[in-house]
Amino acid sequence: MVLVLNLNMAVDKTVYLKRFKRGSIHRYPCALTMPGGKGVNVARALKTFSVPAELMGFAGGYLGLWIKKELIKEGLRAHLIEHNLGESRVCYSIVEKKGISTDFNEDGPAINYSLSQKFIDAYEKKLLNADMVSLSGRGVLGLKKGFYSFLARFAADKKIPFFADLSGEPLIEILNQGVFAAKINNYEFEHSFKMTFSPYSMKKIFDKNRVKGLEILIVTNRHKPFYCLTKEGFFEVLPPKLKSYVTPVGAGDSFMAGLIKCVSHKKNIKETLSFCAAAAACDCETLGAGIITASGIKKYLPFVKIKEKKI
After folding, report:
1. Cα separations in angstroms, 294 against 78, 121, 241, 297, 298
2. How confident is the model at residue 60, as a pLDDT?
């Protein structure tokens, strides 16, 4: 079972407009409304891959109750720490023609120490039945320094592979405790490590954290080539050209789900990177995040190009 941590649960609303004009009133038939947050999108994609997963996160107020209900409807297992400190956040995405997305994301309520301890207690118990842990997305206000360190350290002590897709200080915290795989984008790399991205700076970060347990480091850059460093080598991957482009929202989460699936099935690194790129491309064809199909991935697999390089 993959334990998917989505600390800051959300209600995701996505609207498609031909053109978004500032200062205007826009009318549309309806919004696509789903439980969201990057971890939820990962779990949604894992369900498509038939990989057992369970979500964990904080859910507040009436919106938190709605999230819980809708996750059950989707067939996604979840252990939510419910509270009345405020409503779970709402994230609004306005998608225009050609895939341009304008996003409005709330921070969500701050979590107090008592609730954070309740989460940690539940996390320790859930790890007893977990084969892997995934942590994705925006953190929660109010969490004390060291919270993320604990999550990674406890998994490392149990020798459970930890997959991370986050940035900034939380990323630094968990890397110091031993993470199996980290996937971030170009901007997040520069923001987190305070250095210009290049294959050489990427290698510097990988070498520093490899001794702590890091085995896979991936840095993406939207539709441009992305890079992967492992003990097997350095790879440049050219994603496939999209045949039907709607929005990139959620593509990185389907990528992460693909990475988890391939590692769990012991695929080699080239097979893994091809599958991840194809899964991300497939997600770009849908308005909802984490919504992919096996046929869509199969369609893109032959068009992923991988080059092994020396640095």
Report:
1. 24, 37, 18, 5, 6
2. 98
The domains of the chain are located at 2-6+37-57+112-309
Side chain identity, residue 246: V
Which letter, b or e, does each residue of 195-215 get, where b requires 16 or more Cβ atoms within 10 Å of its Cβ? eebeeeebbebbeebeeebbb
Four-point Cα dihedral 248, 254, 255, 261, nearest 10? -170
pLDDT for position 126? 98
Model pTM? 0.95
Residues 6+ apart with CB under 8 A from 211: none
User: Which CATH entry fits the domain spanning 2-6+37-57+112-309: 3.40.1190.20, 1.10.10.10, 3.40.50.20, 3.40.50.10540?
Assistant: 3.40.1190.20
Spatial contact of 168 and 39, defined as CB atoms under 8 Å apart: no
Rg (CA), the chain: 19
pLDDT at residue 111, as a whole number? 97
